[in-house]
Specification:
Shape: globular
Largest sheet: 7 strands, antiparallel
Number of domains: 1
Low-confidence stretches: none
Structural class: alpha+beta
Order of helices and strands: EHEEHHEEEEH
Number of helices: 4
Strand content: 25-35%
Number of strands: 7
Radius of gyration: 14 Å
């Protein structure tokens, strides 16, 4: 099962090298901020790869997860940018990771 994370960066937070908010994304575009996710011991934030790909279109392999690069999802009126990443399961084998990588590259 895969997880999708998000990070929201505003021009002000970018000046300090920080983000405004980060957390998990669930099907239906539900955002769960990281502090709420950490407090929710019973929360399940995993989904199938198909569901994850509906939420994020990664174009870069970061070595352990796949991220959206470039301008992200930019709100040009406010300058706020949202970046999303797909995280494979921790127990994924190297060969399965490579298959996911090939699948993402083929999209």
């Amino acid at each position: 099962m895969f997880t999708v994370t998000y990070e929201i960066v505003s021009p002000e937070s970018a000046e300090n090298g920080e983000s405004d908010e980060s957390g998990f994304l669930l099907p239906g575009e539900w955002q769960i901020p990281i502090d709420e996710a950490l407090a929710d011991k019973d929360g399940v934030y995993t989904m199938s790869l198909r569901e994850a790909l509906d939420l994020a279109q990664p174009d870069e392999d970061s070595g352990r997860w796949f991220t959206e690069t470039g301008s992200g999802r930019c709100n040009y009126a406010t300058g706020v940018i949202e970046y999303r990443a797909i995280h494979p399961p921790e127990n994924i084998t190297p060969s399965s990771y490579k298959r996911v990588k090939r699948l993402l590259r083929a999209r």
